[in-house]
Amino acid sequence: MEKGVERWAVDISEWNPTSHQFSFALSLLPQHHHSSITRFVKMEDRKRALVSRLLQYALVHQVLGIPFHQIIIKRTIEGKPYLEYDEVDLEFPNFNFNTSHQGDYVAIASEPLCLVGLDIVSPVIPGKETILEFVRNFSQYFSAWEWDCIVNAGTSDEILVEFYRYWSLKEAFVKAMGTGLAYRLDNVEFRHTNWTNIYVNMNGEDKNEWRFWLSELGKGHLVSIARGHPRLAAESYKRTLKRVDFGDEEYHLGLHLPNASFKLQTVEQLVSVQGRADYGIPTDNKVHRFEADEVVDAEKFEGLMREQ
């Protein structure tokens, strides 16, 4: 099942598309995604939304081998994306994924059996508030032990980073379940040994059906991964899963799969993979577009994407 554990990330600060390049990348996605991308006013927000969806389609295509035009991705009422498909893959009995974006990075994580939650944070210094004023706005979301760790972390900058570490883990936890931040986060306490061997304690009880990882993604960004039991998913998300009940042995296998390192992708790579697939498989150095009878040399197609 290890092939179903994927971690991809894109640094969008390295992609500065022209309007034609952006429109071309957007055109590779199904029409129903377009309004959720173009509704943003700022280009940086549009880029994050677009790249998030490109990552979803590219990862599903690579891991499950589903042709792009057959991939159907929807969202629960809480906004969690999921893949809609009928066939149950025995190698990946419960394939699911989660995305996150903040600052310069957009990322996606997938799991073959367990729930997966992903959250990126960029510890930016607040605008008009001091760091302590900013952090205190969120004090109600932390346990007494967590709050003590945050405010006693050291300098103001160290306090800010410590705050974001805990916040990122809490976000990844609720995103894995698909519940949203309505969850009582102060009842969710994260313990760790120098930010390794991270585990969650809820209402005084350690929850052994969860595993967590926290690491640096690059340029000061932090990323958290949560892996948990499918039976803990929110009802709306649980209905999208292929299986919820697993025997102890099978679930233990999924829970303790090695955590993968993040693979850095570029937007050009995502567009190339999706664009070429949309135009057909170039087995004879020819690219056949599904929507038309047009035939283009594969090399010319690569040039087309560079020129857009």
Automatic annotation (TrEMBL):
Give the UniProt entry's GO cellular component terms: cytosol
Any one GO MF annotation of this record: holo-[acyl-carrier-protein] synthase activity
Q: Give the EC class as a word.
A: transferase
Q: What is its EC number?
A: 2.7.8.7
Taxonomically, the superkingdom here is: Eukaryota
Q: Which residues belong to any copy of the 4'-phosphopantetheinyl transferase N-terminal domain?
A: 14-112
**Which Pfam family is one of those matched by this entry?**
ACPS
| Protein's name in the database | holo-[acyl-carrier-protein] synthase
